[in-house]
Write a structure and sequence with these properties.
Elements (H helix, E strand, L loop, with lengths): L24 H14 L8 E4 L14 E4 L5 H11 L5 E6 H7 L1 H10 L3 E7 L2 E2 L5 E2 L23 H8 L3 E6 L3 H13 L4 E6 L11 H5 L2 E3 L10 H8 L7 E8 L5 H4 L9 H4 L8 H6 L2
Parallel strand pairs: 1-2, 1-3, 3-4, 4-8, 7-8, 9-10
Antiparallel strand pairs: 5-6, 7-10
Bound molecules: thiamine diphosphate and iron/sulfur cluster.
């Protein structure tokens, strides 16, 4: 029998992406593939749930089991997959509009439940796919197609919100620093529980304020300063640092909390629900016929 080929970045590549040249999604895509190689997770050993948006279009360019569902509904889908097969690593990839606009209720409730899911949030301050409306993380005053005189509301702070909701792993990455982002993603995927990776992702087409240069001038690594990710009060203080001055990236907070899966009685025998109750084919032709 031929020896299996070694796992490389190419193992996760399907089609070439069609993001705008220079989009931060390229950096996240590359860092994710590298992290999966580092963890030796094969394409058929994981599922990725994608949001709707430019970020969610990564479904077309990553070789793995993928689920592309409704806008804003990534986290409940990911939880459902984990409940059906809690041995399967599940990663979520979605935009800030998807996760903090349409899906913000799920964000809080998923954090409460703490399923073993890695959540990669593409934070570009805009709804990229629908042409640049401001998203919930856009700063006050940000000018967009839907706020021609500037955004009036205060932005959502994903790090602060996750900390306040009781998340067990809260982190921020930057799409322009592949090595650090890969390291962060490896730590997030290894974490037992819901791991938030809020990735600062330049949208070169619709966000001319938060550019690569703007980030390079501000981003600093929490691992290079005195920060202890086991201390919630320190994490909270770092989360409040004004983004237009200095921007901390890395692990803000990490703690051990029982996962959703570990507390569900039917899963405690070790067998997945699918192993306990195999899926049986069901004839749905009568239902389909009603819509024809
Ligand atoms: C319920 C619903 N509302 C609106 C849309 C239209 N829509 C598709 S993509 C998108 C914006 C996505 O923005 P974001 O989640 O920030 O991702 P990005 O494109 O920036 O990566 C919107 C509003 C939709 N598909 N479904
Ligand atoms: S519109 Fe923005 S987020 Fe979408 S592909 Fe282009 S640069 Fe990337």
């Amino acid at each position: 029998m031929p020896k299996p080929l070694p796992l490389t970045e190419r193992s996760f590549r399907s089609r070439p992406p069609n993001w705008c040249p220079g989009c931060g999604d390229f950096g996240i895509w590359t860092a994710l593939k590298r992290a999966l190689v580092t963890l030796q997770l094969k394409p058929d050993q994981l599922t990725i749930v994608f949001g709707i948006g430019c970020s969610g279009n990564m479904v077309n360019v990553v070789r793995a089991y993928g689920f592309h569902g409704l806008h804003g509904r990534t986290l409940p889908v990911a939880e459902g997959i984990r409940l059906a097969n809690h041995k399967l690593p599940v990663i979520v990839v979605g935009g800030d509009g998807d996760g903090l606009g349409e899906g913000i209720g799920h964000f809080i409730h998923a954090i409460r439940a703490n399923p073993n899911v890695t959540y990669i949030l593409h934070d570009n301050q805009v709804y990229g796919l629908t042409k640049g409306e401001h998203s919930p993380t856009a700063p006050k005053g940000f000018v967009s197609t839907t706020a021609p005189t500037g955004v009036i509301e205060e932005p959502v702070n994903p790090i602060g919100l996750a900390l306040a909701a009781g998340a067990s792993f809260v982190s921020r990455g930057f799409a322009g620093d592949l090595d650090s982002l890969e390291t962060l993603l490896v730590a997030a995927i290894r974490h037992q529980g819901l791991a938030l990776v809020d990735v600062l992702q330049p949208c070169v087409t619709f966000n001319h304020h938060n550019t690569y240069l703007w980030y390079y001038q501000r981003v600093y690594q929490l691992s290079n300063v005195q920060h202890d990710p086991s201390k919630l009060d320190l994490a909270w203080r770092r989360a409040q640092e004004p983004m237009d001055e200095k921007i901390p990236v890395g692990i803000f907070f990490q703690t051990k909390r029982p996962t959703l899966e570990s507390q569900l009685p039917p899963l405690q025998g070790g067998r997945t629900l699918l192993e306990q109750q195999p899926v049986r084919p069901v004839d749905i032709s009568a239902v389909v016929a009603q819509y024809q």
